[in-house]
Amino acid sequence: MRVSLVIALAIIAATSAAAQSVIVNVEERPKPWVVGTCEIGPNAQCPNADLSFADLRGADLRGANLEGAKLVRADLRYANLNGADLTGANLDAARMTTAFINAVSLHHASLKGTDMSFVRGSHAVFDDADLTAASLEKADLKGARFKRALLISTELQETKFYEVDFTGAVMRDAHIRFTIFQDAYVEACTGCPKDWQKGDTVWQAEEKERLRNQRQESPHGAE
Q: Which residues contact 95 (CB under 8 A, 6 or more apart)?
């Protein structure tokens, strides 16, 4: 009787484990990879395309024209968007964790609630973009531009803003714990930390060096 009970429990456990097993889809992307009317690939020409809720994980969209595209809640994790044009695109609540967005144009883009944690976005352009409640946690955004951008209730913990231009931006109720603003330009920015950096910024040091060299090269300086 005891043996039968043990066998029965083992069968139940095995059945339960099988029912809870996770099936991982390892199927390769189709060739050509077409979503709606857009053929996914480098330099794709998909302005104003509707890619809402699309699964674009790991997509190679380098240099793509996605101006005005709808990517609401799209999955762009690990996607390569380097140099892509997303001007005026709607990426609200999109998942962009660890995406590559170097030199991307997100001018006038809507990024409300978008998860861009861990992205690599050197020289990306976020001018006039709305990043309300978005996450840029631990993103590397050296040399990016956020002119007139809205950073309201934005997650910016450990974000690296080296040499970033925040002219006219609004930063309100943002989480800036351990955020780096080294050499950031924060004049005319509402809510940006104005006393984060001690000493000259890189361009202030360069300007001083330029003026010093001019004085040395002038006839009066030579005397």
A: 73, 74, 75, 76, 77, 114, 115
Instruction: Please give the full DSSP string across 69-85, using - where no structure is assigned.
Output: -B-TT-B-TT-B-TT-B
Q: What is the mean pLDDT of the chain?
A: 87
Alpha-carbon distance of 33 to 15, in angstroms, equals 38
Q: What angle do CA 66, 70, 73 make, to 5 degrees?
A: 120
Tell whether the model's pLDDT for residue 37 goes beyond 80: yes
38: exposed, middle or buried (Cβ count in 10 Å: 0-12, 13-18, 19+): buried
DSSP, collapsed to helix, strand or coil, labels residue 65 as strand
- What distance in Å separates the CA atoms of residue 184 and residue 47, rounded to the nearest whole number? 32
41, 33 Cβ separation under 8 angstroms: yes
Type of residue found at 208:
K
Instruction: With a cut of 50, say whether residue 13 has pLDDT above it.
Output: no
Which residue type, as a one-letter code, is found at position 160? K
Tell how strand 38-39 and strand 34-35 pair up: antiparallel
How far, in Å, CA of 164 to CA of 136, rounded? 14
What confidence score (pLDDT) does residue 7 get? 47
Report helix, strand or coil for 219.
helix
223, pLDDT greater than 80: no
Element (H, E) at 222: helix 219-222
Name residue 6's amino acid. V
